[in-house]
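Supplementary Note 3. Input sequence used for the single-chain structure prediction.
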Amino acid sequence: MPLNHIEHYLVLTKDLEATRDFYVNVLGMRDGERPPFDFAGNWFYLGDMACVHVAQVGGEKGLREAPEGDGTGAVDHIAFNASGLAELLRRLDRLGLQARRLTMPDLGLE
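The predicted structure, written as discrete structure tokens, is reproduced below.
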């Protein structure tokens, strides 16, 4: 399963607006299109790539409760773009590891 590149990472935040200001006004990324998830968030782009995903945690529209601490946000996951999914799933099975698969049909991702 050769990895091609890091696809994106997801940051969890209690302060969606401050996080948006950081990625847009400090780092110069573009706040762009995002699928209609049932929780508040943003996708930040470098060129055509939505490489930073942000989800609000807690509150009425939040994903879930945020981890405790004073940091600026927890990294929820990092996604890689790769080839050879069937081979990877067989390898995980041989190693006794269970895969959790999520699909995004609207984006053609598995």
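DSSP finds two helices and five strands in the chain. The radius of gyration is 16 Å.
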